[in-house]
Design brief:
By secondary structure, the protein is an all-alpha fold. The chain has helices at residues 2-17, 21-44, 49-57, 59-67, 73-99.
């Protein structure tokens, strides 16, 4: 639910940023693909800060942990903060359109 909510919130933000539905879909696809590619860095980078950052963003490792029954609070907080940030920014963008 956390990953799905984060993806929906990112899609909502991209939709708020563009005036065209197709452009919103393409922007959402590129952002989500970028997050996927960053997550792959967990498997290819040498141990260090950058690898830990990629592991924190990686959806694949989240799904692997959930399939083993492991739920980490840090993952839930990350998903909740992505959702909150994207929805807050979406609200600000829509409000700026209204006041032009």
């Amino acid at each position: 639910l956390g990953v799905g909510g984060a993806y929906l919130a990112i899609g909502t933000l991209m939709s708020a940023l563009s005036k065209n539905q197709i452009a919103a879909h393409l922007l959402t696809t590129f952002v989500l693909f970028g997050l996927f590619i960053v997550g792959v860095g967990e498997r290819v980078l040498d141990p260090g800060f950058l690898r830990e950052l990629c592991a924190h963003v990686s959806v694949l490792s989240k799904l692997e942990e959930l399939s083993q029954g492991v739920v980490q609070l840090s993952r839930l907080v990350f998903d909740a903060s992505v959702i909150a940030l994207c929805l807050f920014l979406s609200q600000r963008v829509v409000r700026s359109w209204r006041w032009g």
